[in-house]
Design a protein that fits this description.
This is Spore coat protein. The chain is mostly helical. It contains 3 helices and no strands.
Amino acid sequence: MQQQQNQGQAQQQPQYQEPPAILSTKDSLYLSDMLSWNLVAMKKAHFYAGQCPDPEIKQALENAGQMHKRHYEKILTHLQPQQQQQQAMGNQLQ
C-alpha cells in the first residue's frame, strides 16, 4: 500500500520545461560532487596514462581524461550564468 502511495507522489511532481532560476542547496551540493568526481577522474587518468607503457592503453586513458575535462568545463559553463546572477542579486542587496 505504501509503495502505491509513493508511486502516486512521484507522478504528482511538477515537470519543468526549463530549469528553475534558483539552485537548491541539494542541487548545489550535487553539482559540487560532480565537479569533484570529474576532476579526480581526470587527474587519475592523466597519472595512469603517464605510467602506462602500452601506447593503446595510454591513448585510451588520455581520451578518458580529456572526456572528464570536457565534462568538468561543461558543468562550469552551466554554472557561470547562475553565479553571475547570484552575484548581481547580492550586489543589489548591499
